[in-house]
Design brief:
There is one protein chain. This protein has helices at about 15-30, 50-55, 65-75, 160-165, 185-200, 250-255; strands spanning about 1-10, 35-40, 80, 85, 95-100, 105-110, 115-120, 125, 140-145, 145-150, 170-175, 200-205, 225, 230-235, 240-245. By secondary structure, the protein is α/β, with parallel strands linked by helices. It has one domain: Carbon-nitrogen hydrolase (Nitrilase/N-carbamoyl-D-aminoacid amidohydrolase, 4-Layer Sandwich). Strand 9 and strand 10 form a beta hairpin.
Length: about 270
C-alpha cells in the first residue's frame, strides 16, 4: 500500500491569514502531483515565540480550523496541518496538531505532551509552559494506507512516545517540529533516524523554513526517514516542497526481517527496587 506524502516547509508570517493564503497557493501548486497526505511545520500560522501563543490562539472549530477543513476537502487530501495554538473553554492554550481527512473531517488532534522548558547557565530561560498547557494522550489515526501516528517536536526526544504509537499500530509517524540552530545540527537527523530504526516506522518530520529575522530561528531541514533508518530525502533551510511515495508494506517486511517489536522482553522492562 503506497502513500504519496507532500511536506511543505513554509516561511511563517506574522499575519495568520497570510500563512493560510500561502498554504492554499502551495496546495494549488502541488495538486497535479496528487498527494495523499500533506504536512506542515510546528506553529505554521504563528511566529514561534512563547508570548505569541495566547495571542494567536483560537478555539477548536475557529476560523483557522474551518479554513484547514475546507482546504482538505477542496484538494481531497489528508491534511496534517502542522500545529496551531488552541484555547479551550477554561482558557488553557495548547500546541495542537490537527489532521483532516479528504472530506474535511477532523480525524485526529494531538496536543504537545512534552513542553520545551530550558534553563541556561547565564540565567536565561525559554519556557513553553509559561503560556502552554501540556497534552495528556498519544495519537494514532486510521487511513486506507494503515495507521499513522502524530506528535509534536520535543515529543520525539522521549523514546516512549514513538514506541507507544508504534505499539498502537502506527506504520508512519508525522512530526511537525521547529528545532533551533543548536539542537538542529546536533540532533535533528539523528533523532528521526534513531526513532525510525528503534520502532521500524517511517518518520515524517516537517519544519518551518529558517528566518533569522524572527524571535526564534528554526533549523528547517524537513526530513523523511525509512523503517530501516535511511534518509529518503531532506530539504535545506529554505522554503521548499518535498514529495515522496512511501510503501507501508515495507514496514511489515522490515519488522519480519528484524523482529525488534515482537522480540521485546516486557517481563523484564520494569524497575525493581
Amino acid at each position: 500500500m503506497k502513500m504519496k506524502v507532500a511536506q511543505l516547509q513554509t516561511r511563517v508570517y506574522p499575519e495568520k491569514e497570510k500563512n493560510l493564503d500561502q498554504l492554499q497557493t502551495l496546495l494549488d501548486r502541488i495538486h497535479g502531483e496528487k498527494p495523499d497526505l500533506v504536512t506542515l511545520g510546528e506553529m505554521f500560522t504563528c511566529p514561534y515565540v512563547t508570548e505569541n501563543f495566547p495571542k494567536y490562539a483560537e478555539p477548536e472549530g475557529g476560523p483557522t480550523w474551518q479554513c484547514l477543513s475546507t482546504l482538505a476537502k477542496e484538494y481531497g487530501v489528508y491534511l496534517s496541518a502542522g500545529s496551531i495554538p488552541i484555547r479551550d473553554d477554561a482558557g488553557h492554550v495548547y500546541n495542537s496538531a490537527y489532521v483532516f481527512d479528504r472530506d474535511g473531517k477532523q480525524i485526529a488532534r494531538h496536543d504537545k505532551v512534552h513542553l520545551f522548558d530550558i534553563y541556561l547557565k547565564n540565567g536565561d530561560a525559554y519556557k513553553e509552559s509559561d503560556t502552554l498547557t501540556a497534552g495528556d494522550h498519544f495519537t494514532v489515526f486510521d487511513t486506507e494506507f494503515g495507521k499513522i501516528g502524530l506528535f509534536i517536536c520535543f515529543d520525539i526526544r522521549f523514546v516512549e512516545t514513538t514506541r507507544i504509537e508504534s505499539l498502537m499500530g502506527a506504520k508512519a509517524i508525522i512530526v511537525p517540529a521547529a528545532f533551533n540552530m543548536t539542537t538542529g545540527p546536533a540532533h535533528w537527523e539523528l533523532s528521526f533516524r534513531m526513532r525510525a530504526v528503534d520502532n521500524q516506522v517511517y518518520m515524517i518530520g516537517t519544519s518551518e523554513a529558517r528566518d533569522p529575522s524572527t524571535g526564534y530561528t528554526g533549523w528547517g531541514h524537513s526530513i523523511l526517514t525509512s523503517p530501516w533508518g535511511d534518509v529518503i530525502e531532506q530539504l535545506d533551510e529554505k522554503e521548499g516542497i518535498m514529495i515522496n511515495e512511501i510503501d507501508m508494506d515495507y514496514v511489515d517486511e522490515i519488522r519480519a526481517q528484524l523482529p525488534i517489536l515482537s522480540a521485546r522482553r516486557t517481563d523484564l522492562y520494569e524497575l525493581k527496587f
